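The freezer alarm interrupted the setup, so I double-checked each line after restarting. Inputs confirmed:
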Amino acid sequence: MLRWIRQQLGFDPPHQSDTRTVYVANRFPQHGHYIPQRFADNRIISSKYTIWNFVPKNLFEQFRRIANFYFLIIFLVQLMIDTPTSPVTSGLPLFFVITVTAIKQGYEDWLRYKADNEVNGAPVFVVRSGSLVQTKSKNIRVGDIVRVAKDETFPADLALLSSDRADGTCHITTASLDGETNLKTHFSVAETLVFYIKTLPCLVCAKILMPHPSFSVFMLLFAFVRSLGQENLLLRGARLKNTKEIFGVAIYTGMESKMALNYKCKSQKRSAVEKSMNTFLLIYLGILLFEAILSTILKYAWQAEDKWDEPFYNQETEQERNSSPILKFISDFLAFLVLYNFIIPISLYVTVEMQKFMGSFFIGWDLDLYHEESDQKAQVNTSDLNEELGQVEYVFTDKTGTLTENEMHFRECSINGVKYREVNGKLAPEGMTDDSPDGSIINNDGIGDELLFLQAVSLCHTVQISYDQPDCLVGGGDPFAHANGFSSSHMEYYASSPDEKALVEAVKRCGYVRSKVSASLSFSRYKLLHLLEFDADRRRMSVILQTPSGLRTLVVACRHFSPEEYIDVEKHLNAARTALQQREERLQEAFAYIERDLQLLGATGVEDKLQDKVQETIEALRLAGIKVWVLTGDKHETAVSVSLSCGHFHRTMNILELLLELLLVVLLVPVPIHQLSGSVLLSLFSRIKEDHVIQHGLVVDGASLSLALREHEKLFMEVCKNCSAVLCCRMAPLQKAKVVRLLKTSPEKPITLAIGDGANDVSMIQEAHVGIGIMGKEGRQAVRNSDYAIARFKFLAKLLLVHGHFYYIRIATLVQYFFYKNVCFITPQFLYQFFCLFSQQTLYDSVYLTLYNICFTSLPILVYSLFEQLVHPHVLQNKPALYRDISKNSLLSFRTFLYWTLLGFLHAFIFFFGSYILMGEDTMLMGNGQMFGNWTFGTLVFTVMVITVTLKLALETNFWTWMNHFVTWGSIAFYFIFSLFYGGIIWPFLHSQDMYFVFVQLLSSGSVWFAIIIIIITCLFPDVVKKVFYRHLQPTSTQKSQVTWGGGAERTREDFHLLYCQSYPTLPVVLV
Amino acid sequence: MGKEGGCGQNKTMVKQEQELANRPDNTAFTQQRLPAWQPMLSAGIVIPGFVIIGLAFIGIGVALFITSKNIQVMEMDYTGFEPDSDCFKCSNPEEKNCVCQLDFNISSRFEGPVFFYYGLSNYFQNYRRYGVSKDDAQLSGDLDNFKSPSDTCSPYDTDGIKPIVPCGSIANSMFNDTFLLYREVNGTNELVPLDGKGIAWWTDYNVKYRNPNVTPLKEAFEGTVKPLFWPRPAYELDTSDPNNNGFINQDFLVWMRRAALPDFRKLYRRIAQGDYARGLPAGNYSLKIAYNYPVLSFQGRKKVVFSNVSWMGGRNDFLGIAYLVIGSMCVFMSIVMLIVYAKFKFPEED
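Predicted 3D structure, all chains:
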């Protein structure tokens, strides 16, 4: 029972056995026993809650948060023991906070639920009892045979049984899964592909055995002989293309499909502000405990004498007298804890949450972060890290697609040592002018090599062709159909990698030229025998073709196979492909076996343009004190040239190199290589130390980086920190993440930001404190896994310098202010204990205690934290150095925290003792000679406090929109109106009517008005003086720029235009 | 998720439609360009501001101080702590129905209306257990709560058998010294009339506290006992005025409004009748005190205070002084700032 509950609440994953047996079309064996397995249905549930588990589950999640749990405890204490305040005082704010959070989470979950419903209710066709039935997506069961038509998405993970094509293949695009827009060919299971008739799938009787769903779906076993590979599987979420219809058997449904499994893993990142917030909370918890213990001790010191503890007018009950002293002591301590508990700002978390949630809209709304050409606006995936954007110290950026456009254009190639350029769609050897007759490379000696080269380039790729006419399927029933379609001009290429596409397009363009010379190339058909997929470790791919054969990446080479050789090769490959165990390793071996003895054909050059304003952006980041590291997979010459052209490296920089080749050169000396890298590092380090004037740039490659990290981590870090620019080339994806982690965990714990556009940047994006995805051409993997996504690298400047700055000052002031206002709130109550024998008498009425944080002082700070701007955005963007003012979490440093806390205490003392001296012994404040009581005293303190605390925020506010005015003055007005109303009525359901007419009586005294004014002014006076002196004696650059902006608004606007109109005549060109 | 599927061959066609969908609105709100007032706390604004505020405060301070100084206050301790005082004999708690006398002299006319207070010190009316020890429902005349007082009143909820009305510590400990003021006129003592009306808050007397709707009032208290400490039951607190009995007895109301601090005064009577409405003439006076209330057990003190009031209430030097101090500080700081400003003015930005 308990287990069932836990399952329903989602704590336990559902029970799993080791293998699952799927009976195709759910035809179970007629005889012999089998145990029916229960599989998840095809319902996708991305919502966390159901209607009936929402309350318990959401409550459980919320009370895992330490502050909420703390208030729950306080609330329970109030329920259990006799405490000075009613449980309502902490119960109501807690309820409020919990409700607001629950509504927000519930709403988000409802959106997910709606989206789920749409997916689950989508119509699908399933073979049931021999005929095709339409049903809802959620009704698909494991084993069902599903029909999917063209351009539909697969409703579950399917094993492809047959398609309408004779060869049983189909094309799919996985754009919505991994963002790759190319068409992929998938194959039917060999035994079933012949059964393409509509009624047929019911004839299929098979059993699929497979391990339970895991992240590697690629290891499935067909019952007897067949091993199902990736190419037989159609993953949920992918879309069928270029194929009329397919039949597949559902093997993983619903939450067990790969898409659903992959959704779950996303770790929570916490910002530096949140960490300091928690530290401050602990400090305040310390203060609270200290005050409670001190009060308890003082109470007992006082009560040692009977005349204080039990004067004749205040006798104890029998029960009180007889209870045990220890119990009394504990309950007194708890009572004090309850009395002072408001020093922990209960609504801090909920306000921060609302601020982040609402504030993050500004990023998406920003027109400056909107990219016109691609019609993409900035996207916020998590609002938890807004303020972290203002704290970045290191930026790790990918190169291709991030700094560059990732728009590949074939530029030149080298064949047999001769360099060719593409000029007006023709390939011309270097030095030959465009107008030479034919502009061609007709050179009878070289023609064979060139032909081979172009063949290789045009054949070795995964580019798919899609025609405009939807039904014109590539190579319908033709087995020799691998696409190199020079035959149609209405083609569009789909490729997983942009440089493949660029090459194929270039060859196509050149192909027309070539066709005059050699018709054989254009119209030959090739049968694709094997495709050796590209992967990042091998850095190459190959195809084996029936006629010629080839290889290509950047270097193009080929190998001729004799028939005998081919048979051998095929054997190897097939063995590896169908291997049941360690298939990947064996494939590697087979690939290595094939890809040897290659004959070099030539090399291609593809150009990738730098993105707009990369140079300015990097310069701005550098001025802002941010160190920029470029991490790229490119080789070091390319990387350095990009670095130079994008301003990452300057010409004046002293460039230090730590490269494996260099290490190997020195390796002639018989020293172990790891020691060597150490000594090289040492020498680099000494060079840095020698020369302070010049800026240093460091180039390091992946191999030497891992060496350096393994053996000399500290030394390497030391070198890196002293370099103003670091370039890491030849990096594998995981290495990128490793570098980020290294910096992140170094003693200074700098805040890191990683920005990239491709799947290979995902690990780095997830590792860094802030991950930014570029919405580029390499799919949406990076965007999906990022915290923020922008369309262009140049937007990073505004995102950090303006939005980051705004969010940081907003949230930092918010946090400090919350602690301040709660110190102000509760310290008078603490002081009052010294005047009431530590009897836990509250100073304020319960309603005031309850509403202080949720009504009287909540809105101004929320509005402040949404709209505050210390400096105009243009100034922030023009003066990146202002970013340094807020670096290292400076507004939440211990010093500022101390300042705010002490200010809170100071104000609290002024409120309390101001009122104390005023009423003190002689409380005749009314013109009719009548006297005030204790509630009037507390209300006076409270009134002064609400006004002062609100005005203190007004002093902090630099940017007064109408909303700030409205909530600031509105809050004070609301307090007065509410108090008049609250005190003006005998509340039938309240136990005591202590506050009846207290507020009116208070305000009817002239002295009180004068006292309120003088106390408020006294509180704010030192603060104003301090601000003025700091502004004039020690102005921060932020304050200076406020003057500039305030003084010469028009002029600065002109400057701004000037700066942005500066043109950069040289558009750097990058060759890869 | 649908978006990616769309960007295929007909990308250009869809583009314009999408542009409308994705382009953020260009409004002042979304672009964070809302018109805003951006004040800066710079010397240029603060210095004149401080001068104005400072001067205004000094003016107010002087006015308040003078007003306060014009208020006459006379305070006399009658605890009987010193053996030579007349009330010393009464300070012994064994002594019952003790009456003592306090003679004093007013040298110059005490301007009217004069307010007569009693004061207690070291008396913690703000003790929590004490403060909650009352039953508001009972005090608003709810007869149900006559029979079963709220348990917050404990240990003064019942005498063991019958419920106590009014219950609770506060009511029980009601101050019960009484005073008669005599003025010596031509060798004989003339009673100065004391007005016990209007000493409690109007709302307390008329709204918050109510006697049960039973006449005579005595019947409502059937089956209850008076508070242990009281000499008379609630319905007989003022034998001379039937409207000043029960829960709306003004002395009772004054007592029930708990003092905020351990040293407090409570209004006892106003001297506003007859010739004395204009004040107490100079001369010799004697105060006859029915000394009932014990305070020495907790080192308390009792005193009587005569005071007149202005619009700002009683004598209160603090406000005037505070205004003067803050006002001069404002002026002083503005001078300091002026010097600093002249010396360290910002260099104009580039």
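Quick read of the result. The mean pLDDT of chain A is 76.
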